[in-house]
Every structure is written in structure tokens, then in C-alpha cells.
Amino acid sequence: MTIRPSNRYTNYHAHLYFDKDSVERASFIGQEAKRLFSINLGRVHRKLLGPHPNWSCQLAFNCHQFNELIPWLETHRGGLSILVHGLTGEDLADHTKHATWLGEELNLKLEYFSY
To answer: Cβ(85)–Cβ(8) under 8 Å?
Structure first.
């Protein structure tokens, strides 16, 4: 069962997942989110990076932006999967225990955290 995002942490990341056919849509969603909600937008990575199973783009935001941003992302994600997680300083827990999803839940490469 996919757990829906709830506002329980001070700071968050959302990772938009896409491929070559949806990169332009993901880039547009990220730019619009930045413009509308004054979030921090990372680079649109057209390669696999970290624990992420697809190309991705990171959105960084806080608990004050959460309640407007998350419903907007749900409405505008256009079929893309989005990982939403709190930032606690424990990377593995943030990407598992503190992770929630908009759209299809994808399998992260958790071995990345075996450092």
C-alpha cells in the first residue's frame, strides 16, 4: 500500500522521475513549481544518479510550502512518479521510512546507502 505524503517534517525533497519521452514535461513541472511556490529546483538529470531508478529532478522545500505544493504536484504530475521524503539527516531512513509517493511507487536502489 502506498503511503500518501503528510506534513510531518521541517524540510523535504521531492524527486520527479522521468525518461527521454517525459523529460520536457518533468522540466516544465519543476520550473512551474519553482515559480509558483519559490522552492529550490535542482538540475534535470538525464542519467541515473544515487538511489534513483530513473532520470530525476529534485525539488527542495519546507513544511510551510508543503500544504500547497503537494496537492499541486499531485494534480500536475501528468502521470510521473514523485518520491516525497522528509530530511532527517538519515539518508536511508529518509528514502525508505520517511518516503511517500505521488503516483506509482518505484523501487529505489537502496544499496547506494551501503557506504
So the answer is: no
